[in-house]
Design a protein that fits this description.
alpha+beta, 11 strands, about 350 residues, 5-stranded antiparallel β-sheet, Phosphorylase Kinase, domain 1, 3-stranded antiparallel β-sheet
Length: about 350
């Protein structure tokens, strides 16, 4: 498939000329996809090089039924590229079809992700730098806020909650607690100005690339959407960025983004935030969105694991105790690594054994 794509690009005079593609200097290599996506959707990514420099990224799904997903991603990425002129993102170059499969082509950049930057230097100063780059991206996104209304805001939250409850199937007492937090959040915005904007839907360190001039570049728009819940970007970032305790204290003492600070405070001091129902409700919305996305992607066995771990998260939110949330985050990272390297069966048994030993079951 990739050779057919290469031939297609070489035969397109405009693309070949603009990106200096020719058969003698072109090369390619597969690149990993974020988190769980490669596993279920059979999503393939390749970076194409010209004279050893990355110039293009191509992606496609093995399942032809996923063509609509790629078409949506291409359209929304073009929209964001056009609307957010100060935000650097990959330009979506082309969308075409080969053997019944849609193929998306976008520009590629040299550089390293914020995750890689953090892995190279786990100091508090570097942690501050990582957060600062992410903040720059958030500020650029927030320059394009669109005035909306309370009804649409409430409808989006209620639709998310209904989808979650239908799939998660909580017992009545748990559902009542969920609805209480959700309604508290909705009521808190009754007299506030309501906005919406686009988000890539996967705002975390591996999806922000530092270019050769250290400019942040936002990547991965498979889950992009226009939403009133754009503030969940920071919750996603914090959840998937393993910030050490000493760095958390330093960040909270710094003049950082309010939403980021509140979300981070809950991770560090859940008992102190137990009376802050708004922050707990925002974490609830993030957990519900993650549960829906992963459950709709995973096979049945992994969906059951998601349901078990979701119950632990809810208990944390309802009781104000963060011990199990911290353990869950660690478990999630371990299990994801096992999943990527060992397959479904190993992942399942390792995850279940870990949850038994930590009391999550």
């Amino acid at each position: 498939m990739i050779e057919l794509i290469i031939s297609k690009l070489l035969n397109d005079e405009d693309i070949a000329q603009k990106y200096n593609l020719n058969r003698s200097t072109i090369s390619y290599m597969p690149t990993s996809t974020s988190r769980y996506k490669h596993y279920v959707h059979s999503r393939f990514n390749y970076t194409i090089f010209s004279d050893a420099s990355p110039v293009l990224c191509v992606r496609f799904y093995s399942d032809k039924n996923s063509n609509a997903r790629l078409e949506r991603e291409y359209d929304i990425q073009r929209t964001i590229y056009t609307k957010y002129t100060n935000l650097k993102i990959p330009y979506p170059v082309s969308l075409f079809e080969i053997n019944g499969r849609k193929v998306m082509v976008e520009e590629a950049f040299a550089g390293k992700t914020l995750y890689k930057k953090w892995e190279e230097d786990r100091t508090t100063n570097n942690c501050h730098e990582v957060i600062e780059y992410a903040t720059q991206v958030q500020m650029l996104l927030n320059k394009n806020l669109i005035l909306s209304n309370f009804t649409d805001f409430a409808n989006e939250i209620n639709a998310l909650t209904s989808q979650f409850i239908a799939l998660y199937r909580p017992p009545p007492t748990e559902e009542a607690l969920i609805m209480r937090l959700v309604n508290l959040l909705i009521d808190a915005f009754k007299d506030k100005s309501i906005y919406k904007r686009y988000t890539n839907g996967d705002f975390y360190p591996s999806n922000i690339l530092l270019g050769l001039e250290n400019e942040p570049i936002l990547l991965d728009f498979e889950s992009a959407e226009e939403t009133h819940l754009y503030f969940l970007d920071w919750f996603s970032f914090i959840f998937y960025f393993n910030i050490p305790s000493k760095s958390i204290e330093s960040l909270l003492n710094n003049n950082c983004d309010t939403t980021f600070a509140n979300a981070l405070s809950y991770i560090k001091h859940p008992s102190h935030m137990s009376n802050n129902s708004i922050v707990r409700a925002q974490w609830l919305l993030f957990y519900m969105k993650e549960f829906l996305r992963k459950s709709l992607a995973y096979p049945k066995i992994e969906t059951e694991i998601q349901r078990i771990t979701m119950k632990s998260k809810l208990k944390t939110l309802f009781t104000g105790s963060n011990t199990r949330t911290q353990e869950f985050i660690r478990l999630a990272r371990i299990s994801l690594f096992i999943l990527k390297t060992g397959g479904i069966r190993i992942f399942y048994h390792a995850a279940m054994e870990k949850m038994h030993t930590t009391g999550l079951l």
